[in-house]
Design a protein that fits this description.
heterodimer, A: about 150 residues, alpha+beta, Ubiquitin-like (UB roll), DNA polymerase, domain 1, 5 strands, about 35% helix, B: about 675 residues, Aldehyde Oxidoreductase, domain 4, 3 domains, 5-stranded mixed beta sheet, 4-stranded mixed beta sheet, about 30% helix
């Protein structure tokens, strides 16, 4: 039997304080998905290449798969579950047809949310730059970029 | 062809071959157990070059030899046509191992339900076929297995074969416990199927006035360690290797070859993009030799509805290639291609290229039928069931929309039950761009069956069989009576014990196999034309694509957002195939095992895309629609290659056209030296 070593972590998740016991080597992504069962944040590669697991820490987008739990202690984490489904950005993704298989969508919405928070009227180039680390294999990005611009115009 | 073991016995044929399966309660325990497995291998000489694999003295991957399938076809008088030709162009073209790289890797869970059935919930493209594969491999009756395919995180053909399903079922069968298997990105890239890497030799003859006279083609597709869907892929390659043109004389020799490389199978385009890269490069080179406009040349040769294609199959469905070419010619990107464009640096060259494509949709001469169920509920909602899988293409939405249209109900009142062997009838595989066509037609028949059921009801109630039933916004109108709301109909059907559900079945009209040639000729084809703008950096060989126009013969467009989304996505996958998706493989080992070494297009690589539907009306399609899932990718790579030729006067022959390859082409042609000497380019 493999013995599991755990420790406790405290942070603010989508506005609510949480305490969670997890192996200290776990990434934030593993804790979100396996310990907290918050499966909205997806795993695409677990090594920082695809951007699927993008979450916000104190408002800044990061790869949850590359974020050690020790880095999360005491900080504010926002995941896709923390963004209101009625948010103009979410509505714009649906209305623009920016979602096909949907696996990359949570990461794209979180990355775009961070962009619009600091730059409410981005240009197309600024949108493309902000999501350059979020891979999508279905859409070819055109409708994703259109959705973010549409939300910015709303 | 069943040549692939679930777990290897005494021979391992490629790096992704499974040799043992570990089930554990935690990932840590599973990793520890894997570490304790000791496998003794006796290394065999690797067979990795498909051309060498075909030689008689090559080591054999399978007992029967390395040529998995071979076809030789002859039509017309090829030699006479070449003798009479004014222009002959010859080339050898290669295309690489493209990896599907769907963002959700192969994944699933399994468990025993309360009736002792093994339930497998996994990403896939065909729940009923997956169930048959599990039953066959585990020697269980199919009724003991239930396969559910929930929303799938991308597939593109890469989930057409079984992946995790049998392994999951095996663990649950052996342990009686629930199991979960999620491939890591690396496991997915190593063990998953690929697009067939290809070597294609072509010699094409044309007359001075631009008529294509003959095509001599050799096709070699490397299927890797196992056949998978390779034989069908090779057939599609053969069927489309002459492009959408009238060519009377053809000599085609095609080989599907086993190697110790990773397994190749279905990938969007299913064998067509490779041969079309070769053919569309050939056509462009002919146009240049003749001094003709490349679109004009293609229009002169374009197939028309009713034509007998080179294999003897008559083109009976809608054939929109001529209209696509005409629309491409009218597009400003093409019309204004001669206009000088100011580029940022003197070492950049701009070019515009065009290419055409075709591919059959539905599965040809194989039995191709599907059923869809339709049920009325007393609350006025409608439930549509079918085994089509939702892989991001929007089939669930499209089917709901078709049902709403046929029954005249708001789309919110339609619920779709999909891809569950227990609850949805078999609509067969979701591949070959066939599901809207198939499910749509089956649905149409289900609505006809429902109308008959309503007549049964009225006959049972009144003793007289009505002569007509139509569906309106207010409900079903029987003869000229008052409209009966669907909810009320459901109650009355229930009261008479007639059943609220019906099933519609559609069988695709099929062409017979052409003896000695195509095993699965198609009756229905999609067509498209791509125009691409490239900017080539002469100093680095890197190519960017600012703009693409994709003109598609889509039949009638059912859902404009889904349609443009499918085409845009396919164009960008085609761009990845054309320029950047470079799987490095050495002795059968994949070196590029992650998304930072195997690069797929990002938001910064994707061009501005204009999607232009040429809406021909497909008589056989639901509301005139055709398949659209694959057409967008078919001619992207040759259009980009032709644009590079236009920009720099070099002739790319190898996909992906990486900066290294393009740089050496430019170097060999003296373009680089000329620039360094301060000469002016022609771009």
């Amino acid at each position: 039997m493999v013995h599991r070593i755990e420790r406790e972590f405290s942070f603010v998740l989508n506005g609510k304080p949480v305490k969670v016991r997890a192996p200290p080597a776990y990434s934030l992504l593993e804790v979100l998905r396996y310990e907290l069962r918050m499966t909205g944040t997806k795993e695409g590669c677990a090594r920082g290449d695809c951007g699927e697991c993008t979450v916000l820490i104190d408002g800044e987008p990061v790869h949850a798969c590359l974020t050690a739990m020790t880095q999360v202690e005491g900080r504010r984490v926002t995941t896709i579950e923390g963004i209101d489904p009625g948010h103009p950005l979410v509505r714009a993704f649906v209305e623009s047809g920016a979602v096909q298989c949907g696996h990359c969508t949570p990461g794209l919405i979180v990355a775009s949310y961070a962009l619009l928070s600091r730059n409410p009227r981005p240009t197309e180039e600024e949108v493309r730059d902000a999501i350059r680390g979020n891979l999508c294999r279905c859409t070819g990005y055109a409708k994703v970029v259109a959705a973010v611009l549409r939300a910015a115009g709303a | 062809m069943k040549d692939r073991p679930v777990l290897c016995d005494d021979k391992v044929r490629y790096i992704g071959d499974p040799v043992a399966l570990v089930a554990a309660e935690t990932r840590e325990a599973a990793s520890e157990a894997v570490r304790l497995i000791d496998v003794e291998y006796e290394p065999l000489p690797p067979v990795t070059d498909p051309v060498r694999a075909m030689m008689p003295d090559s080591p054999k991957v399978h007992e029967g030899g390395n040529v998995c399938r071979q076809t030789s076809l002859r039509f017309g008088d090829v030699e006479a046509a070449f003798a009479a030709a004014d222009v002959v162009v010859e080339g050898t073209y290669t295309t690489g191992t493209q990896i599907h790289a769907f963002l959700e890797t192969e994944a699933g869970i399994s468990y025993l339900d309360e009736q002792g059935r093994i339930v497998v919930v996994a990403g896939g493209q065909s729940p009923h076929r997956d169930r048959a594969e599990i039953a066959h491999a585990l020697d269980l009756p199919p009724e003991r297995i239930r396969v559910i395919t929930p929303y799938v995180g991308g597939a593109f053909g890469g989930k057409d074969d079984v992946s995790v399903q049998i392994h999951l079922a095996l663990v649950t069968m052996k342990t009686g416990r629930a199991a979960r298997l999620v491939l890591s990105r690396e496991e997915s890239m190593v063990s998953g199927t690929k697009r067939h890497p290809a070597v294609i030799r072509m010699r094409t003859a044309a007359s001075r006035d631009g008529r294509l006279l003959a095509n001599e083609v050799e096709i070699i597709y490397d299927t890797g360690a196992y056949a998978a869907l390779g034989p069908a892929v090779l057939d599609v390659a053969i069927e489309n290797c002459n492009g959408p043109y009238r060519i009377a004389n053809a000599k085609i020799d095609a080989y599907l070859v086993y190697t110790n490389n990773m397994v190749a199978s279905a990938f969007r385009g299913f064998g067509a993009p490779q041969v079309l890269f070769a053919m569309e490069r050939q056509v462009d080179r002919i146009a240049r030799k003749l001094g003709m406009d490349p679109i004009e040349l293609r229009m002169i040769n374009a197939v028309r509805k009713g034509d007998v294609y080179v294999f003897g199959n008559r083109m009976e469905g809608s054939v929109g290639i001529y209209d696509c070419l005409r629309a491409a010619r009218e597009h400003p990107l093409w019309r204004e291609r001669g206009r000088p464009v100011e580029l940022e640096y003197p070492w950049l060259r701009r070019g515009i290229g065009v290419a055409a494509g075709m591919k059959g949709y539905t599965i040809g001469a194989l039995p191709d039928r599907g059923s869809v169920s339709l049920e009325l509920n007393p609350d006025g909602t409608v439930v549509v069931g079918g085994s089509f899988t939702e892989i991001g293409q929007g089939v669930v939405e499209s089917v709901a929309q078709l049902a709403a249209e046929l029954l005249r109900v708001p789309v919110e009142r339609v619920r779709v039950l999909f891809a569950d062997t227990e609850r949805s009838p078999d609509t067969s595989v979701t591949s070959a761009s066939r599901q809207v066509f198939l499910a749509g037609n089956a649905l149409r028949r289900a609505v006809e069956a429902l109308a008959e059921r309503v007549k049964d009801l009225f006959e049972a109630e009144t003793g007289k069989r009505p002569s007509s039933v139509s569906f309106t916004e207010e409900g079903a109108v029987v003869d000229s009576g008052r409209p009966v709301p669907l909810g009320e109909l459901a109650e009355r059907l229930e009261a008479k014990g007639l059943g609220r559900g019906v099933v519609g079945t559609y069988e695709v009209p099929k062409v017979e196999p052409i003896p000695g040639t195509l095993e699965i000729p198609h009756l229905f084809f999609m067509f498209g034309v791509t125009v691409a703008e490239v900017v080539v950096n002469v100093l680095t060989g890197s190519v960017t694509v600012p703009r693409v126009v994709s003109v598609v013969d889509a039949g009638r467009v059912i859902n404009p957002l889904n349609f443009t989304g499918q085409i845009e996505g396919a164009v960008v996958q085609g761009l990845g195939f054309a320029l950047m998706e470079d799987a490095k493989i050495a002795d059968g080992y994949l070196l590029t095992r992650d998304l930072s070494t195997y690069l797929i297009p990002s938001s910064k690589d994707s061009p501005r895309i204009d999607v232009i539907p040429v809406e021909t009306f497909e008589e056989e399609g639901p509301f005139g629609a055709k398949g659209i899932g694959e057409v967008g990718i078919l001619s992207v790579a040759p259009a980009i290659a032709n644009a590079i030729a236009d920009a720099c006067g070099v002739e790319p022959t190898s996909v992906p056209m990486t900066p290294e390859k393009v740089y050496w082409l430019l170097k060999e042609a003296g373009v680089v030296d000329k620039l360094k000497a301060g000469g002016e380019g022609h771009g």
